[in-house]
Amino acid sequence: MPGWGTGSFENEEAQNFLGQLNSLGVDDLSPILARAADQEYMDAPESSVVIVIAEIVAAACGNPPEAMPSQIAEWIAKIEGSPSSKMSELARRAVEKVRINSELKDLWLEAEGLNEWSASLRDLEKRLA
After folding, report:
1. Cβ proximity of 35 and 29 under 8 Å
2. How much is the mean pLDDT over the chain?
3. pLDDT for position 3
4. Could you report the per-residue pLDDT of 62-86, keeping only the tens digit for each?
5. If we measure between CA atoms, which residue out of 90, 94, 88, 96 comes closest to residue 127?
6. Cβ atoms of residues 76 and 24 within 8 Å
7. Measured between alpha carbons, how far is 116 from 20 in angstroms, rounded to an integer?
8. CA dihedral 44, 46, 52, 57 (to 10 degrees)
């Protein structure tokens, strides 16, 4: 897996989080999203994790990404039910925050990949709506 790409899972922080996912429950994800949705500005590592969590929420609610890592499918299979609509809205707000005002956004602007990255996040926001 490359260390850097515009997709939700194409960075080291995302891969590290996916490696820990099996030990987490739905209740472990909500506080991370809540903190992110309320922040003014997020650093890149935290932003990457927020995007992965939002992808997990979207997938668990029946709107997975085109290419879903096996860790997410395994996690969804072991949880009971699906995340609440409140959690989906929280995830959508957190992704919007990352897309609009984060270090990750600034890095993509510098790397000239902002349009592709933003389009990926807009798709995720639609899947969370």
Report:
1. no
2. 93
3. 56
4. 999 999 999 999 999 999 888 999 9
5. 88
6. no
7. 27
8. -140
Indicate if the pLDDT at residue 113 is higher than 80. Answer: yes
What pLDDT was estimated at residue 115?
Answer: 95
Measure CA 99 to chain center. Answer: 11
- In a 10 Å sphere around its CB, with 0-12 CB exposed, 13-18 middle and 19+ buried, how is residue 70 labelled? exposed
Query: The tokens of 36 are what?
Result: 């992110």
Q: Across the strands, what pairs with 102?
A: 42
Give the bridge partners for 42, in sequence order: 102
**Is the pLDDT at 1 greater than 80, yes or no?**
no
DSSP 129: -
Percent of the chain residues past pLDDT 90, beyond the cut: 88
DSSP string of 7-66, one letter each residue: STT-BHHHHHHHHHGGG--HHHHHHHHHHHHH-S-B-HHHHHHHHHHHHHHHHHTT---S
Region of 112 (left: φ > 0; alpha: ψ -120 to 50; beta: rest) is left
